[in-house]
TrEMBL record:
Lineage: Eukaryota, Fungi, Dikarya, Ascomycota, Pezizomycotina
CC terms in the record's Gene Ontology section: endoplasmic reticulum membrane
InterPro entries in the record: ERG2_sigma1_rcpt-like
Keywords for this protein: Endoplasmic reticulum, Membrane, Receptor, Transmembrane, Transmembrane helix
Similarity section: Belongs to the ERG2 family.
Record carries keyword Heme: no
Entry's EC annotation: 5.-.-.-
UniProt source species: Aspergillus leporis
GO terms, biological process: ergosterol biosynthetic process
PANTHER family: SIGMA 1-TYPE OPIOID RECEPTOR-RELATED, SIGMA NON-OPIOID INTRACELLULAR RECEPTOR 1
This protein's name: C-8 sterol isomerase
Pathway involvement of the protein, from the record: Steroid metabolism; ergosterol biosynthesis
Primary location recorded for the protein, binned into one broad class: endoplasmic reticulum
């Protein structure tokens, strides 16, 4: 009986803490969706379809204007398999409440977005993304320079027909999203070296940002 009481008390405390922090998430963010969209559009205007130059433009400006040393400037690319889709990503920032990555593939992919505990903003840098929701007879089309906002808790099918790269920004609770990112490793790919690389980079960046006071 005492154990049940302790567990109930612990759950109540954790639930209260979660609700308190969830209502105040805005104060933990260091990026703004509108600013990242504007930056993406200016990078495209400056470099067109030279995606490497577009990415360098984005990272260089973020380095200049982001307060504190919260960015990963080493362009460490790793494969990413999630929801049946496959691409590669470069993690620019990872913390408890935000992540910012370059995600894409040069040959196209398709899959499930996942249902997440964060809002996701997919700024198309090259190519185009299609999205579909049940009941619709037409795809949502997101061309170069646009942004696809997947709201927290929503889910879609998505497709990148050919080469497509994006600046992807998520804000909300990031750790629960990792389960979606890891699931395909255990159910399909068995690519444990990539799982380790993803975990190492993500963990390193999250811990480093926590030590700097960035939740």
């Amino acid at each position: 009986m005492r154990t049940l009481t302790l567990l109930a008390t612990l759950l109540a405390v954790l639930a209260g803490l979660y609700n308190y922090l969830d209502a105040r998430l805005e104060r933990f963010y260091i990026f703004e969706p509108s600013q990242l969209h504007d930056l993406s559009q200016r990078a495209i205007a400056a470099h067109g379809n030279d995606t490497r130059a577009v990415v360098n433009y984005i990272v260089s400006e973020l380095e200049e204007k982001t307060p504190g040393s919260h960015l990963n400037k080493d362009e460490e690319w790793v494969f990413n398999n999630a929801g049946g889709a496959m691409g590669a990503m470069y993690i620019i920032h990872a913390s408890i409440t935000e992540y910012l990555i370059i995600f894409g593939t040069a040959i196209g992919t398709e899959g499930h977005t996942g249902r997440h505990t964060a809002d996701d903003y997919f700024n198309i840098l090259q190519g185009a993304q299609l999205a579909y929701v049940p009941g619709s007879y037409e795809p949502e089309v997101y061309p170069q320079g646009s942004v696809h906002h997947l709201r927290r808790g929503e889910v879609k099918q998505y497709k990148m027909d050919e080469s497509c790269f994006a600046l992807e920004y998520a804000r909300g609770w990031i750790p629960p999203m990792l389960f979606f990112g890891y699931a395909d490793t255990f159910s399909s790919t068995l690519d444990f070296p990539t799982l380790w690389a993803t975990s190492r980079i993500t963990g390193r960046e999250m811990i480093a940002n926590l030590l700097k006071g960035k939740i």
